[in-house]
Specification:
alpha+beta, NADH Oxidase
Length: about 190
């Protein structure tokens, strides 16, 4: 698959098969991130592969947050338990989870540049994954913002910010493309 094909066919994947992504392939995919452009070669990214023990802790918190979002606080205990179990199982079913954090150092301009570089790293990862037949969803849910999540993942919240979780696995289904035509987003100036 060439670069243009990877860019144009890549989709965010929301449903994965239960086939695990081999660790060597996951590391190959993640290695594409370190080649993203970054001003002054700050290399502001950190990639954290979430293991099973850590995942269980995150899944508990994810389930609680999903329960709160669904406003199920006034639901019966049985309904709450069911909603919590569904959310927990959903999180645990993701074949691989990688947290991506970005350094938050220097002035505001450097922080913007470093954030953009880390986002480019995430795009590189997604494109290489896609070329390998692996799908990715970039998630920025509430669990990624919590100080406890940073601590659990060994990240210093005073210096690093989680900019997302990458849910990685073999696609069970691939959504159709939905993009505006270029002429709707292109401006030409004299």
């Amino acid at each position: 698959m060439d670069v243009r094909e990877a860019i144009e066919t890549r989709r965010t994947i929301f449903a994965f098969t239960d086939v695990p992504v081999p660790h060597t392939l996951l590391e190959t995919i993640l290695s594409a991130g370190i080649w993203a452009p970054n001003h002054h070669l700050t290399e502001p990214w950190t990639f954290v592969i979430v293991g099973q023990e850590t995942r269980r802790t995150l899944a508990e918190r994810y389930a609680e947050l999903r329960l709160q979002k669904k406003a199920a606080l006034d639901a019966t205990e049985e309904k709450r338990a069911s909603l919590r179990a569904v959310a927990y199982d959903k999180f645990m079913a993701i074949p691989a989870i990688v947290a991506v954090a970005c350094l938050q150092e220097g002035d505001e301009q450097r922080q913007r540049e470093d954030y953009a570089a880390a986002c480019c790293a995430m795009q590189n990862i997604q494109l290489v994954a896609w070329a390998e037949g692996v799908g990715v969803q970039w998630s920025t849910g509430p669990v990624t913002l919590e100080p406890a999540t940073h601590e659990l993942l060994g990240l210093d919240l005073s210096r690093q910010q989680i900019i997302g979780f990458l849910y990685i696995g073999y696609p069970a289904e691939v959504p159709k493309a939905r993009r505006k035509p270029l002429d709707e987003v292109l401006k030409r100036m004299p």
